[in-house]
Known about the structure:
Elements: H1 7-18, E1 24-25, H2 28-34, E2 44-50, E3 57-64, H3 69-81, E4 85-89, E5 110-114, E6 122-126, E7 129-133, H4 138-147, E8 150-151, H5 163-168, E9 196-205, E10 210-217, H6 223-226, E11 235-241, E12 243-244, E13 247-253, H7 258-261, H8 272-279, E14 281-287, E15 294-300, E16 309-310, H9 318-321, H10 325-337, H11 343-360, E17 365-369, H12 370-374, E18 385-386, E19 389-393, H13 398-418, E20 427-434, E21 465-473, H14 480-494, E22 500-504, H15 521-532, H16 534-547, H17 556-561
Parallel strand pairs: 3-5, 4-5, 16-17
Antiparallel strand pairs: 1-2, 2-3, 6-7, 7-11, 8-12, 9-10, 9-11, 13-15, 13-17, 14-15, 14-20, 18-21, 19-21, 19-22, 20-21
Amino acid sequence: MFDNVSRRGFLRTTAALAAIPVLLPADPAVAAQELPDFPAEVALYRSAYRNWVGEITADGLWACAPDDPDQVVAAVNWAWRHGWRVRARGASHGWSPLTITQGTPSDAPVLLVDTASHLTGLSLESADSVRAGTGVTLEALLTHLEEHGLGVTAAPAPGNLTLGGALAVDAHGSAVPARGEQRLPGHTYGSLSNLVLSLTAVVWDEASGAYVLRTYDRADADCAALLTHLGRSLVTEVVLRVGANTNLRCVSRTDIPAAELFAAPGTGGRTLASHLDRAGRVEAIWFAFTEFPWLKVWSVSPARPLTSRQVRTPYNYPFSDSVPRPVAELVGRMVSDGAWYLAPVLGNAQYDVAALGLVTTLSADIWGASKNTLLYLRPTTLRIATNGCAVLTSRAQVQRVVAEFTAFYRKRLTAYADRGRFPVNGSVEIRVTGLDDPADAGSQGARTPLLSALRPRDDRPEWDTAVWLNILTLPGTPYAEAFLREIEQFMLRTFDGGYAEPRVEWSKGWAYTDEAAWSDDEMLDTVVPGSFGEDVWGQASRTLDRLDPHGVFGNAFLDRLLR
């Protein structure tokens, strides 16, 4: 996709992808011809679809922006009667084909339902719960909570994600309890889906012969499939359990060698596991072909430490929110001139920008209300492709998982480079979370999300932790898919259920062949369903089919995955 793209053109494209989708009002005559009898009260548009990196695109699709859930139902029933499919769209901040599949033509019978325009209501339901429309952004949600002294333990870094999109793919942050730390009421170390108390979805009603709104309590059996539905449903509103807000200190370091941070367990030193023990909240960003990762460590800190700078707003790493000129120049040469051999130079440039930026912006040691340290990634950052998985294991085995993964990654990256191949030019990112314990919701009989990667395994009660592993590289990088397939197959061999087991991260890249992601038949047919268990996978698939027997909420990829 990057053939003949200039450096300036690349940056213009990046900026354009960062913008909110432009919805052009439809010509009423054209709309009447192509969408006969469409509900007059629902605003229609023509709209392009672009995923986060622009690898999945579709131009000129019909879209609508319902004012409220009732208008959503009207649009869905129109789609069902006319043989169309409905795809909910929030921020389009994802990589996998869960919303739109590549190659979807502009005249496809696909209707985008934009949730972010109007499904954005926010109100406190009680002293420890919030009612939210699924089009609300995480930043707006967390800001609302902060204003009422409430918050969450962890959240994804981008604040522009819509709540509905985040819940559909069990979005998460990075947190486990530090040694001696007790979970606060209303908080969870698992995914955001684990905070849901109830949700309202558009489902088929046999009695009325139409799609209707139905609210499900967390204890309802059907709710378990809707908590992480992968886009196979449409949820309009949720009630979330929340707890007292906390102040967090975030200290960044770039002086610990990867060999020490990711060392084999038992070697001592400043390992990732040692930071987990002390603080419980870590993230490591290891730029390709460098030796010193950028390590972030969050810790609960009610009062501001003497050396910390207080922050009152999020996004406190401006050097990572834009594309600095040295990085832009290198990226431009790589994508326009095919100079992929510059990957080691780019990796070191990214490290230098981070190390210097932390100093010059006084952001190496910051403190403030949780939102202001948890949200740190703007849409203007460099758009980059990523694979992803969660490795379920016990807390005691986290360092072993990290050590084995990083050792294999380094070995294979070096072997590729020795042959003049540079499949990775971004970074490895490592986060650690707890699993989805439904008791955290504080709701009697609460169900566990069926398809959350953080769903505990009943037969492995000692597995209480997930290590999230991501490898980032520019779209179109030669040999990337083959390299990522090697990594994926390594993880399946190594974390084979003995002491750990991987599950895919729904929104990222997975099921690799040598040519493409989301394409390996064995992964799609056997490995991914098997990682949840035949009973759980079957229950989720059957429930989603029953709630949408006409397949209105789906696409070709989901049809293939959940068949």
